[in-house]
Design brief:
279 residues; mainly alpha; Rhopdopsin 7-helix transmembrane proteins; two-stranded antiparallel ribbon; 9 helices; 75% helix; globular
């Protein structure tokens, strides 16, 4: 719907799938804004040794929130143009495929900052410091950044007309996978080395976060490969938005529960108001 200079997309103009894509992009932006506020507001609600995790969560949410506001705004403009061209037209389909590469710019810049912080958040569950495992943490962060950077280069393997150069993209995808494989390997080594220092809640938090790197993080390389097919790229946008919410906001909630549980155990149970206990 267009009124004056304002445009609000509707399914009748652009189709239901683009509307669902737009919906989840906006939801992601709001989820990160909410998690930013929550991370700052609950800084003193967790055990002191886990307060750095709240800071990581706030920075992750701030970066991801700004990224998704930019993504949502750009996609809104795309839908405006799509409503003019028609969602079922050849030009409309071409617009959606070309715009995917542009939106990917925001995603990769986001991931270059947020994924290393997610890994630091994971190591903070077992209170692993850089003095104790400096080389392992450095390798972890370098492998992660290498994965994101080479994946970004792979996404940029395009012709002047915007067509994907399949062989080059697959090559860079394979290179990126080398970095991806290092991440769970290093995390596993850190867990074996430092698991005994944590209690059952901290070990559970570390395992949960580390497990996401070989499960829900797998959505991203799968989406990378699916761009080489004829799939409607809105499905990939949907998957990425949902995965980002889970991998960033969901992990932040897990970290909060771990720190809050430890804090509650140290307090006199009578000092905790009903309904505020964890577990």
């Amino acid at each position: 719907m267009t009124f004056g200079d304002s445009f609000v997309p509707t399914a009748g103009e652009v189709g239901i799938l683009p509307m669902l894509t737009y919906f989840f992009m906006a939801c992601a932006a709001y989820a990160f804004l909410g998690n930013l506020i929550f991370s700052l507001a609950t800084q003193k609600s967790v055990a002191p040794e886990h307060r750095s995790s709240r800071v990581y969560g706030a920075i992750i949410s701030a970066v991801a929130g700004v990224s998704y506001l930019l993504i949502t705004h750009f996609y809104h403009e795309i839908l405006h143009e799509l409503s003019r061209l028609g969602p079922d037209s050849a030009q409309g389909s071409l617009l959606m495929r070309r715009s995917y590469q542009a939106i990917g710019q925001f995603r990769y810049i986001d991931w270059a900052i947020t994924t290393p912080l997610l890994l630091l958040k994971t190591t903070s569950m077992l209170r692993i410091s850089s003095k104790e495992a400096g080389k392992a943490i450095a390798l972890l962060l370098l492998a992660d950044f290498f994965m994101v950077l080479t994946g970004y280069i792979g996404e940029q393997q395009l012709t002047a007309s915007g067509e994907i150069i399949g062989s080059a993209k697959l090559l860079w995808g394979a290179i990126s996978t080398l970095g991806y494989l290092v991440v769970p390997f290093v995390l596993y080594g850190l867990y074996k080395r430092f698991a005994e220092r944590g209690n059952e809640h901290e070990r559970w938090g570390f395992r949960f976060m580390a497990f996401t790197t070989v499960t829900t993080w797998g959505v991203y390389p799968l989406g990378y490969l699916l761009t080489l097919t004829s799939i409607n790229l809105n499905y990939i946008h949907l998957a990425f938005s949902i995965a980002d919410i889970f991998n960033k906001t969901g992990v932040a909630i897990v970290a909060y529960l771990v720190g809050k549980h430890i804090m509650d155990e140290r307090l006199d149970v009578k000092a905790i108001l009903p309904g505020n206990e964890v577990g």
